[in-house]
């Protein structure tokens, strides 16, 4: 048995180096473990993305682009918007689009309102690869499907607040979530049966209905 095995590190339930770090208070320790858990989930989705990219002879950013182009409305299928949403530079997106064009997976057409702007779209072949690449999230989807609804609703609220905090700090350029939207009216926690509200749709937003990628989202003015 090597030293790592002897310490028990890596075994289910064994404390990680962060968990056993001296001097961490209970709250700080919980934060560190949550951050570690988020990193693990992020790692799993990155690995799945890399696998899909390898399978289709694409780069990870090219796979992400195909996924965005498969679901985004025309106004979001432009180089600048895609660069902001994926938190990469416009030249990186332009290079990826050029490669996808050469492979026959993406085409473009001038915007009817402004011919200088090109709106990107998937070719039938690109749509096929995008559909196959969506399998990258199949494992995460399956694990989530098995979790209790109450826990998922709580987790959704927490993650949306984390996204809002990261957006506020400039780590995420674009966050099309309710908690970063100018129409979001947060429920008063002191009110009985309080529920969030969407000022645009004039509709209640119960915790399970909060959106992660809303078409109507408008950012809070700086
Ligand atoms: S417009 Fe969309 S993102 Fe904004 S509060 Fe309403 S549902 Fe949420």
From TrEMBL:
<dbReference type="InterPro" id="IPR000835">
    <property type="entry name" value="HTH_MarR-typ"/>
</dbReference>
<dbReference type="InterPro" id="IPR039422">
    <property type="entry name" value="MarR/SlyA-like"/>
</dbReference>
<dbReference type="GO" id="GO:0006950">
    <property type="term" value="P:response to stress"/>
</dbReference>
<protein>
    <submittedName>
        <fullName>Unannotated protein</fullName>
    </submittedName>
</protein>
<dbReference type="InterPro" id="IPR036388">
    <property type="entry name" value="WH-like_DNA-bd_sf"/>
</dbReference>
<dbReference type="InterPro" id="IPR036390">
    <property type="entry name" value="WH_DNA-bd_sf"/>
</dbReference>
<feature type="domain" description="HTH marR-type">
    <location>
        <begin position="31"/>
        <end position="165"/>
    </location>
</feature>
<feature type="compositionally biased region" description="Low complexity">
    <location>
        <begin position="21"/>
        <end position="30"/>
    </location>
</feature>
<dbReference type="GO" id="GO:0003700">
    <property type="term" value="F:DNA-binding transcription factor activity"/>
</dbReference>
<feature type="region of interest" description="Disordered">
    <location>
        <begin position="1"/>
        <end position="30"/>
    </location>
</feature>
<dbReference type="Pfam" id="PF12802">
    <property type="entry name" value="MarR_2"/>
</dbReference>
């Amino acid at each position: 048995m090597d030293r790592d095995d002897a310490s028990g590190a890596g075994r289910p339930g064994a404390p990680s180096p962060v968990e056993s770090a001296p001097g961490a208070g209970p709250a700080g320790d919980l934060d560190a473990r949550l951050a570690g858990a988020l990193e693990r989930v992020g790692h799993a989705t990155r690995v799945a993305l890399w696998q899909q990219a390898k399978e289709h002879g694409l780069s990870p950013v090219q796979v992400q682009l195909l996924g965005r182009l498969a679901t985004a409305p025309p106004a979001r299928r432009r180089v600048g918007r895609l660069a902001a949403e994926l938190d990469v530079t416009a030249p990186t997106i332009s290079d990826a689009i050029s490669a996808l064009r050469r492979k026959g997976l993406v085409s473009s057409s001038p915007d009817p309102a402004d011919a200088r702007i090109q709106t990107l779209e998937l070719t039938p072949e690109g749509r096929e690869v995008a559909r196959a690449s969506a399998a990258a999230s199949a494992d995460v989807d399956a694990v989530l499907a098995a979790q209790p609804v109450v826990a998922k609703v709580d987790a959704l609220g927490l993650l949306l607040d984390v996204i809002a905090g990261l957006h506020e700090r400039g780590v995420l350029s674009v966050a099309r979530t309710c908690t970063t939207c100018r129409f979001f009216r947060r429920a008063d926690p002191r009110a009985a049966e309080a529920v969030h509200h969407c000022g645009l749709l004039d509709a209640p937003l119960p915790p399970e209905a909060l959106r992660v990628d809303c078409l109507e989202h408008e950012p809070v003015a700086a």
